Amino acid sequence: MAMNDSVNILNSAYLAVEYIDSLMPDNPLQQPFKNAWNYMLDNYTKFQIATWGSLIVHEASYFLLCVPGFVFQFIPYMQKYKIQPDKPETWEKQWKCFKTLLFNHFFIQLPLICGTYYFTEYFNIPYEWDEMPRWYVLVAQCFGCAVIEDAWHYFLHRLLHHKRIYKYIHKVHHEFVSPFGMQAEYAHPLETLILGTGFFIGIVVFCNHVILLWAWVICRLMETIDVHSGYDVPLNPLHLVPFYAGARFHDFHHMNFIGNYASTFTWWDRIFGTDSQFIAYQEKEKKQKLVTKKAN
C-alpha cells in the first residue's frame, strides 16, 4: 500500500511538472542545440563522442568553472567573502596544483573515460536526439546521482581520514588548508579512484541517455569546485538546493581536518554528529561578531 501511494505521488508530480512545462514558452536555444547534437552524431562515431566528447566536456567544464574563483583573488572587493582571508592563494601552490591535475586528468581519469563507450554499448544507452530525456527528468536524475555520490563520499571519505591510512592517501588533498576551486580534484591517484567510484554508481542506476553522463559531470564539477572555492559568495544559486553544504561547510573540513565529510549535502554529517565541531565553530563566530558590534 505504501509503495503504491509513493508511486502515485511520483506519477502525480511528474504529470504536474509535465503540464507546467507544456505552458512554458519554447526554449530559443533548443533548436541550435538540436542542430549541433545531430551534426555531432552525423560526423563522429559513438566511440569518439563517448571518449573525446566526454574528455572535452570534463576539461572545459572544470577549468571554466575555476575561472571565477581564480579571478576573485585579484579583486579587493571580493576578499570580504573569502572564508580564510589570512591564507591567500599563491602562484606556487596554484602551479603545483595545476601540474598534479594534468597528471590525474590524463593518466588516471582519461583511461576511465575510455571505458564510457563500452559502458554505453553494453547497456544499450542511446545517443539519438529523439530519445533524449526532458530537462526536468535530467534534473531529477542528476539530483539522484548527487544523493548516491554524497552517501558514497561520506563513508569512504571518512574512512580515508582513519589514522592508519590518512597519511598514505588523503593527506595529499589536505596539503591546502585553505582550498581554492582548482584544488577540487587535487588528490592522490588512489583517492581519485576510490572517491570517484561514487560518481559512476548513479550513472549505472539512472543512465538512459548519453546526455546524462555529461549533465552529471557538469553538475558534479559545479558543486565540488564551489565547495572548494574558498569564497562564500551571496546569492549563490546552488544554495537553493535543499540541504546543500556549500563552501563554508567544506572549507571548515580543510581548516579543521575533522568532520564535515559529505561532499554535497549536510544530512549524513548531521545524522552521525560529525558536524558538531562545525556547529560549535559557527556559534563561536556569531558570538565574536556580536561582541565586536557592541564594542563599536
Automatic annotation (TrEMBL):
<dbReference type="GO" id="GO:0008610">
    <property type="term" value="P:lipid biosynthetic process"/>
</dbReference>
<feature type="transmembrane region" description="Helical">
    <location>
        <begin position="135"/>
        <end position="156"/>
    </location>
</feature>
<dbReference type="GO" id="GO:0004497">
    <property type="term" value="F:monooxygenase activity"/>
</dbReference>
<keyword id="KW-0812">Transmembrane</keyword>
<feature type="transmembrane region" description="Helical">
    <location>
        <begin position="100"/>
        <end position="120"/>
    </location>
</feature>
<keyword id="KW-1133">Transmembrane helix</keyword>
<dbReference type="Pfam" id="PF04116">
    <property type="entry name" value="FA_hydroxylase"/>
</dbReference>
<feature type="domain" description="Fatty acid hydroxylase">
    <location>
        <begin position="144"/>
        <end position="274"/>
    </location>
</feature>
<dbReference type="GO" id="GO:0016020">
    <property type="term" value="C:membrane"/>
</dbReference>
<dbReference type="GO" id="GO:0005506">
    <property type="term" value="F:iron ion binding"/>
</dbReference>
<feature type="transmembrane region" description="Helical">
    <location>
        <begin position="60"/>
        <end position="79"/>
    </location>
</feature>
<keyword id="KW-0560">Oxidoreductase</keyword>
<keyword id="KW-0472">Membrane</keyword>
<dbReference type="InterPro" id="IPR050307">
    <property type="entry name" value="Sterol_Desaturase_Related"/>
</dbReference>
<feature type="transmembrane region" description="Helical">
    <location>
        <begin position="192"/>
        <end position="217"/>
    </location>
</feature>
<dbReference type="InterPro" id="IPR006694">
    <property type="entry name" value="Fatty_acid_hydroxylase"/>
</dbReference>
<keyword id="KW-0503">Monooxygenase</keyword>
<protein>
    <submittedName>
        <fullName>Methylsterol monooxygenase 1</fullName>
    </submittedName>
</protein>
